[in-house]
Amino acid sequence: MSSLSGNQGPRIRAARTGEAAPYEAITLDRLTPVIGAEIGGVDLGNLTNRQFDEIHRALAEHGAIFFRDQRITPEQHLAFGRRFGELHLHPAAPHEPGHPELMVIKADENSKRANGEGWHSDVSCDEEPPMGSVLYIKECPPAGGDTLFASMYAAYDALSDRMKRYLDGMAALHEGEHVYRGLYADAGVADKASYPKAEHPVVRTHPVTGRKALYVNRGFTTRLLGVPADESDGILRYLYEHMENPLFQCRFRWRPNSVAFWDNRCVQHRAMWDYWPHRRYGNRVTVKGERPV
């Protein structure tokens, strides 16, 4: 496992955002100094332009933002996502009837798995992976079912300078085949002939903030390009253990009618399936992104 001994502590402290200008149209409570903020004073189904602008800013500043006590219709959920860009269609997951952009997120006593159990960035195997995901959970188990979020800015900033130089300019292969084939068979979703795969930089530059973030994940990244397989395996293993350090994370405890919005370009997440046989149900809208650079 990676450690934070030596001079890593100062780099982690440098990764934390400082005090920003105050918000005027929304309220904001930070979950940790590194990532995450809960936003109040808004109805996502009826936002003013000023509120939208501040939510957009909050996402850039905190990576993952959360809303409580929202009661939005499917149409309002879709409309909120479209304010950030064109919507992404998932290559495998089930969706609500008549709404291919509205992904179904469900686990109950009959489920063999739950969505997002391992650390990942959504659909990073696409040539143009999603910019962000908006998850609206309507039903929650009595306990458990939290989602963990990790800042890939902080993970990159805490690397040694020598490791940063090693990774500079390196690319990795992201594949969907091993993840998606047969994954949704119990939901009645037939497999496709093939699933996406793409090559992306190991370190990407965020198009809005200009900050560098690690962009490999356990879910989809299969190998580093241009190095031997054993070297790739060793470096990826180190990066996965490093980026999963709790100091880079926040944890969101769901309640019914909560919404989480995270930036897939600089954040990874992991959903905890610790509530079987209870039910958790909601929908996810995903916003298209750009090719990582």
UniProtKB/TrEMBL annotation:
Record bears the keyword Metal-binding: yes
Domain of life: Bacteria
A molecular function (GO) term: dioxygenase activity
InterPro entries cross-referenced by the UniProt entry: AtsK-like, TauD-like_sf, TauD/TfdA-like
Boundaries of every TauD/TfdA-like domain copy: 30-286
Alphabetically ordered keywords of this record: Dioxygenase, Iron, Metal-binding, Oxidoreductase
The keyword DNA-binding belongs to this UniProt entry's keyword annotation: no
Family statement: Belongs to the TfdA dioxygenase family.
Protein name: TauD/TfdA family dioxygenase
